[in-house]
Amino acid sequence: RKLHSFTVMQPLKPEKDNPYCWFSLHAGGQYEYILVEKRGEKSDVGFIQLNRPKALNALCEGLMRELRQALDVFEADGEVGAIVITGSDRAFAAGADIKEMQNKTFQECYRTDFLAHWNRVSQSKKPVIAAVNGFALGGGCELAMMCDIIYAGEKAQFGQPEILLGTIPGAGGTQRLTRAVGKSLAMEMVLTGDRINAQDAKQSGLVSKVYPVDQLVSEAVKCGEKIAANSKLVSAMAKEAVNAAFEMTLAEGNHFEKRLFHATFATGDQKEGMTAFVEKRKASFQDS
Ligand SMILES: *[C@@H]1O[C@H](CO)[C@@H](O)[C@H](O)[C@H]1NC(C)=O
């Protein structure tokens, strides 16, 4: 099957007949393009599955809007300490929705700040793990890179093939990929459209772990549970500090880290964590 399949995706037919929409947290009712539930033994991992199977999870406007809504719901849910975003075994997301873009004018793109809303994913205060099976191409690769941690299934493929469509990555691909894998590989991928497999992605630092396809999602949820067991408050600070490394000089970043480090001493969770350590028991964090 030609990899260009993502360019000929079906447009926006509502997938209302979808039998898998078993659960919805969204106040407005069922989601159309995603499945949403809470996973983990303590239901502390927000779980979002992109679900436009016929379109290999092409990221249409509607899907991205629902993804933002689901993130808002999980951010407001005090029980949720981490979020997992995944797709299907075949595709995390094979691209943006090309038919939605095909006839857009520059004026329209500029006026609506096209794709700017996608950034919501990278602005989540709670840690977000991308569990990538199959294709993560174009917008799909960019979406994965907006997450904090990427786990890949053995058959995963990452790529930024926009150049083959006469455009360039527009949701952070040229920036986040370069920071993740370095200049030469990022240039090669962005200029040729060539994909890399899970092993190369691991080796280049794009992903942190590779798992067999059928274990990927449960391993990502396990990672989410591990994160959710820590203080949500302090995890948010840790995430903010790591992210600052991409925005600041080393001196500024170290200064920022130090301020946040000092701030943790104002929390009950630091007292609890260190007291539990001294008393040789497991900490019970209250997120305060
Ligand atoms: C875009 O424009 C072309 C040429 O006018 C037309 O054939 C095509 O159907 C349009 N595509 C969409 C998705 O509207």
Automatic annotation (TrEMBL):
Substrates-to-products reaction catalysed: 2-methylpropenoyl-CoA + H2O = (S)-3-hydroxyisobutanoyl-CoA; 3-hydroxyisovaleryl-CoA = 3-methylbut-2-enoyl-CoA + H2O; (3S)-3-hydroxybutanoyl-CoA = (2E)-butenoyl-CoA + H2O; 3-hydroxybutanoyl-CoA = (2E)-butenoyl-CoA + H2O
GO cellular component: mitochondrial matrix
Cited PROSITE patterns: ENOYL_COA_HYDRATASE (PS00166)
Keywords for the protein's UniProt record, in alphabetical order: Acetylation, Fatty acid metabolism, Isomerase, Lipid metabolism, Lyase, Mitochondrion, Transit peptide
Entry's localization field: Mitochondrion matrix
Gene3D superfamilies in alphabetical order: 2-enoyl-CoA Hydratase, Chain A, domain 1, Lyase 2-enoyl-coa Hydratase, Chain A, domain 2
Main location: mitochondrion
Domain of life: Eukaryota
SUPFAM superfamilies: ClpP/crotonase
Enzyme Commission identifier(s): 4.2.1.17, 5.3.3.8
GO BP: any one term: fatty acid beta-oxidation
Pathway in which the depicted protein is active: Lipid metabolism; fatty acid beta-oxidation
Molecular functions (GO terms): delta(3)-delta(2)-enoyl-CoA isomerase activity; enoyl-CoA hydratase activity
Alphabetical list of InterPro entries matching this protein: ClpP/crotonase-like_dom_sf (IPR029045), Enoyl-CoA_hyd/isom_CS (IPR018376), Enoyl-CoA_hydra/iso (IPR001753), Enoyl-CoA_hydra_C (IPR014748)
Quaternary structure and interacting proteins, as annotated: Homohexamer; dimer of trimers.
Family: Belongs to the enoyl-CoA hydratase/isomerase family.
UniProt name for this protein: Enoyl-CoA hydratase, mitochondrial
Source species of the chain: Sander lucioperca (Pike-perch)
